[in-house]
Amino acid sequence: MAQSQGFDAHCLTVAYGQRHGVETKAARRVAEALKVADHRVVNIDLRAFGGSALTDDIAVPKDRSDAEMAEGVPVTYVPARNTIFLSYALGFAEVVGAYDVFTGVNAVDYSGYPDCRPEFIAAFEALANIATAASARGRFTMHAPLISMKKAEIIRCGVRLGVDYALTHSCYDPVDDLACGHCDSCRIRAAGFAAAGVPDPTRYVKTQ
Q: How far apart are CA 121 and CA 125, in angstroms?
């Protein structure tokens, strides 16, 4: 979406100690396919704190109903993750001279994550414009174009932009890089493809 608006994409992937490395591999595939201007992978280790099913020895919830997914903050929430990610992105932006920072957070589809809300994005934009030397020369804008879109809308938009969804990954609990098909993320992704009327290219561990 940033490229379609004429931006040169300097992309950042954070390997944060999550239990599975398939996300980082998928990010590299996508960046290569989109021929981005730059793609950096930063390694940090949030396992030092734990507190999430994605970084700690906590079971990933499976086969939850829509009502269950819509209730409360799930154990797959990683404490302060998007604050940490955007702080790294802000530092990267300041070094490359960028004032437009894009993030793919989404507040719809039962995410339940407090750091995916519009209020968070607005607050971080305000922080960026008082916490950096670059803010004395220009104004940072935080872009969250997916934040209010339903999953089906996101998928249709990606199709229009030529995204190869076979390169992408969403599963919280993959097995040998194959999606489990039962975690919240897999269920929301599959429902999104179905609602969008787009064939789901996801490789699952077994037929759902």
A: 6
The residue assigned the tokens 């999430």 is 52
Domains of the chain plus CATH, in order, are 3-196 (3.40.50.620)
pLDDT tens, residue by residue, 105-164: 999 865 689 999 999 999 999 999 999 999 999 999 999 999 999 999 999 999 999 999
Whole-prediction pTM value?
A: 0.93
H-type alpha helices, 15-80: 22-34, 66-69
Contact criterion met (CB below 8 Å) for 192 and 150:
yes
Both tokens of residue 196? 């969008």
Residue 51 to residue 53: CA distance in whole angstroms: 7
What's the pLDDT band for 70 if we cut at 50, 70, 90?
Answer: confident
For the segment 18-68, what is each residue's pLDDT rounded down to a tens digit? 999 999 999 999 999 999 999 999 999 999 999 999 999 999 999 999 889
Dist. CA 101–CA 89, nearest whole Å: 7
Render the burial of 109-141: b for 16+ CB within 10 Å, e for the rest: bbbbbebbbeebbeebbebbbeebebbeeeebe
Q: Which pair of structure tokens corresponds to residue 6?
A: 């004429």
